[in-house]
Amino acid sequence: MASRIPTTATPVDPMDELVADVFARACPSRRTLENATGKWGILALVALAEGTYRFNALRRRVEGVSEKMLAQTLHALERDGLVRREVQTSIPPHVQYSLTPLGTRVATKLRDLIDLVEAEMPSVLAAQEDYDRSK
Description:
This protein is mainly alpha-helical.
C-alpha cells in the first residue's frame, strides 16, 4: 500500500481566484476598462505608444485635454498598471510618462480600433447624413 505524502497547505492568494467578468457589476475590470477606453485614456495611451512624453508635451499631443483631466487620466492609468511615471532627478525635476508592458498591449489594441474608425469615416459620415435626413 502506498503511503500518502503529507502536503502543507499553500496559502491561496484571493487574486488567483479572480475571474474577471466586465459584465458583472462588482468586477474591478469595469473601472480599468473605463479608464483605458474613456476619450482621454485612449488618446493618452495611444500617444504614449509613440514614445515617452513629459506632461506638457503629452498635453500638446492630445489636443483639447485640460491639465486637470490629463493629470487625472494619467493617475488612473498609472494605478491600473498601464502607465509608468518616472521622476528625473534633475534641476528642476522632470517627470516622464511611458507605457508599461501591459499598457503597450492595451495601446496596440486601441490603435487598431482608431485605425478602423478612421478608415471607416466615409461610411460613418454617410450613415449620419442618412440618419439626420430621415429624422
